[in-house]
Automatic annotation (TrEMBL):
UniProt cross-references to PANTHER family, sorted A to Z: HOMOSERINE O-ACETYLTRANSFERASE
GO molecular function terms listed in the Swiss-Prot or TrEMBL record: hydrolase activity
Keyword Repeat: no
Signal peptide extent: 1-25
Keywords: Acyltransferase, Amino-acid biosynthesis, Hydrolase, Methionine biosynthesis, Signal, Transferase
Domain AB hydrolase-1: 65-310
Protein name: Alpha/beta fold hydrolase
Pfam families: Abhydrolase_1
Length: 355
């Protein structure tokens, strides 16, 4: 047995605990969660933080080929374990069959149960970026789990942007790449403008108090609802869901009445972490076959700009699957439902299989 396999089993058995609440009645193996502690982590700013916790959820046997699944902003690895995502991808015979693959779903640096501003330092926490998050994921996968090759790296939204970076930073580590609801180009136009306004609306709230608040600033709830409506949900879908003034008001009322579970500092850091994202200059370093999956009604990555098509021309083996807009799609949120692409993803997995 190879040393890497022994190490993976040892790390896995020491760190994980069962997560029965996540397993529910799904067809795939019971998810497990674990932590790896980085003794020291250096950020792109040069700042160093000791004992950085990187949390993860795994599904399947750690001796099987590994698949990395990366979540979106203000989500967690466990948030991907839904009937519409994991329930359509991780089951027997499905594209990412968890009886054949070892699926790793990390909580990004600064998010979920990984070390984050609300745990320590608050607004004095080092400002991380996507490159830092990918470096932390890489260390967790290689140093923590002893895995040095990935069958696939797949990500949604923020996770999709990080998949582009994975392909550039570690080009020989994976067999295939699937960035979803993302593009490799610089954070700009409406996508960045709305993120900037989200951050500004909270930081300009006196209740934020430079991050030293005792209760969550009210702007967090208002800004979050505004951002969600403006940048996700789909035009045709909203028209179908809210064709009248009263129904539109009901959606807004429900959003504003929902429990506030996020910490303002954590949220600010997460959205600000995208500021310097730009995978475009490094596209030529990507070696693995790549399937980009976007939706035609994605408010943050509108296909009519042509930026994705120009980017894919720089790659040796890449193509775009563009989901047509409809009343059933949800704009930027469309790809949280694997119904729209499970079949094509299955084909891509077969095409990129190594023997």
């Amino acid at each position: 047995m190879r040393f890497s396999t022994v190490l993976r089993r040892a790390c896995f058995s020491f760190l994980v605990v069962l997560l029965p609440s996540l397993a529910s009645a799904q067809d795939y193996p019971t998810p497990r969660e674990g932590d790896w502690i980085a003794p020291s982590f250096t950020f792109h700013t040069g700042e160093t933080l000791n004992n950085v916790r990187l949390h993860y959820v795994t599904v399947g046997d750690p001796t099987k080929p590994a698949i990395l699944v990366l979540h979106g902003t203000n989500q967690t690895g466990a948030s991907m374990l839904t009937p519409h995502f994991a329930g359509k991808l991780f089951g027997p015979g499905q594209p990412l069959d968890a009886t054949k693959y070892f699926i790793i779903l990390p909580d990004g640096l600064g998010i979920g149960k990984s070390t984050k501003p609300s745990d320590v330092l608050r607004a004095s926490f080092p400002q991380y970026d996507y490159d830092d998050m990918v470096s932390a994921q890489y260390r967790m996968v290689t140093e923590g789990l002893g895995i040095h090759h990935l069958r696939l790296a797949l990500g949604y939204s923020m996770g999709g942007m990080q998949v582009w970076l994975w392909g550039e930073k570690y080009p020989d580590m994976m067999d295939a790449l699937v960035p979803m609801a993302s593009q490799p180009t610089e954070m700009s136009a409406r996508n960045w403008m709305m993120r900037r306004m989200f951050v500004e609306s909270i930081e300009q709230d006196p209740a934020w108090n430079h991050g030293n608040y005792t209760t969550e600033p009210p702007s967090l709830r208002l800004a979050g609802a505004m951002f969600a409506i403006a940048t996700s949900g789909g035009t045709l879908a909203y028209q179908a869901l809210a064709p009248t003034h009263a129904k539109a008001d009901k959606i807004v009322d429900d959003m504003l009445a929902a429990p506030q579970k996020s910490d303002a500092n954590d949220v600010l850091y997460q959205w600000a972490s995208s500021a310097d994202y730009n995978a475009a200059p490094g596209l030529s370093r990507i070696q693995a076959p790549l399937l980009a999956i976007n939706s035609a009604d994605d408010e943050r990555n509108p296909p009519e700009t042509g930026t994705m098509q120009m980017s894919l021309k720089q790659l040796k083996n890449a193509r775009l699957l563009l989901i047509p807009a409809s009343a059933e799609t949800r704009g930027h949120a469309t790809l949280a439902d694997a119904t729209f692409y499970a079949q094509q993803l299955g084909v891509f997995m077969k095409e990129t299989a190594t023997h």
